[in-house]
């Protein structure tokens, strides 16, 4: 037990500090991917609700395809494909060498594109839950598109979308472990490195699991807190 | 883009399909059994069993599958001598069995939540009516609860099957040569990631499309009562 604590501690023999740094990287890459997914997802949801035929088919295809293929393949595509693209662009500017895409960027982009497909579904469902009458009422008092979106649509869509968004955030966090295949030193990769150098894989993979569990549990608590706040607003509004 | 190479890699990737299918169905069958056991534990009157199931689900759903897989495959290797004395080393030495175990354990945690929700959705009055008829225990489950719960669970459980197909791709990280494993190898040797991605993506999409259809058909076959009602409402509206 004492040996176990030294291994995971913050002493010179311990991997605690590195694991903590890696946890920060995990959260950072998940946050970036989640944000990219939010942008792509809301655009795709908008295309499916308001877009013309072409846009709708495009958004439909995107959400179906990205939800039907393994995330690992998408990560490989972004990592290797991104490097190919960069090398090609580098070639145009006279650089002959191979240019690696930063694993962080490739990972965040891959997670963003995958989670965008799931987020689009959530936003679309939440938008449908906004009563048509409210939108018409907003228009009838002369609200423009932007004002209508800000005052009427967005607050309600967010409230309806929160539980689904919470689930997707959990998914993104767990997916971020897959980015370790590109060599990004997040929690799993750091544990791999530590396991390799100390020959104690069981301890370090357990530690990785514990770190992930803490992060997912913490974010679950955060989300239920936020949901409670948003919903209480709705209830007091109804009373008034 | 090299369309010819998309085709050649498609053909080459097909050789990984048996492994992907094998992993999917074996692990899914094991996962279903485990999920049923977990649900029974969770609903049990014995508090300890119920809490064990709760903690299991919390841990397995809160950590990434890849971590679980590495823990089983690489982590347990550390206890080789103990496993050997228990006669389990034969199993844990093979990446295949470690993959099946990790996939099944992970999927069962999600599956048991689906089953729990389905059982909760069985209307109390149906159970009371059955009890009033003198049904008890197994008969009640066999005739009333399970038929209702299965129909309720099927769509969500079909989703778990699709997630299982996608999850099998992670086994390529512990050296198994499924479709993704072959794809990674092809990318590394050919430096044509886009073409390989299209070919591999097509295989997974086709497979998932087919499985979704089969689950949909099963659902249609299991719910004749809903089908007839939908048809009569439709015909009434037409009149």
List the helices and strands and how they pair.
The complex is a heterodimer of chains A (240) and B (239).
Chain A: H1 2-8, H2 16-50, H3 53-68, H4 71-92, H5 103-128, H6 132-140, H7 145-175, H8 187-198, H9 201-239
Helix pairs in contact in A: 2-3, 2-5, 2-7, 2-8, 3-5, 4-5, 5-7, 6-7, 7-9, 8-9
Chain B: H1 3-14, H2 17-43, H3 47-62, H4 65-75, H5 80-86, H6 89-93, H7 95-120, H8 124-132, H9 137-167, H10 179-190, H11 193-222, H12 224-238
Helix pairs in contact in B: 1-10, 1-11, 2-3, 2-7, 2-9, 3-7, 4-7, 7-9, 9-11, 10-11
Description of the molecule:
The complex is a heterodimer of chains A (240) and B (239). With 240 residues, chain A is an all-alpha fold. Chain A contains 9 helices and no strands. Chain A has helices spanning 2-8, 16-50, 53-68, 71-92, 103-128, 132-140, 145-175, 187-198, 201-239. In chain A, helix 2 (16-50) crosses helix 7, helix 4 packs across helix 5 (103-128) and helix 7 runs antiparallel to helix 9. The longest helix of chain A is centred in the last third of the chain and has 39 residues, at 201-239. The radius of gyration of chain A is 22 Å and the shape is flat. Chain B is mostly helical and 239 residues long. Chain B is built from 12 helices and no strands. Chain B has helices at 3-14, 17-43, 47-62, 65-75, 80-86, 89-93, 95-120, 124-132, 137-167, 179-190, 193-222, 224-238. In chain B, helix 10 packs antiparallel against helix 11 (193-222). The longest helix of chain B has 31 residues, at 137-167. In chain B, 35% of the residues are buried.
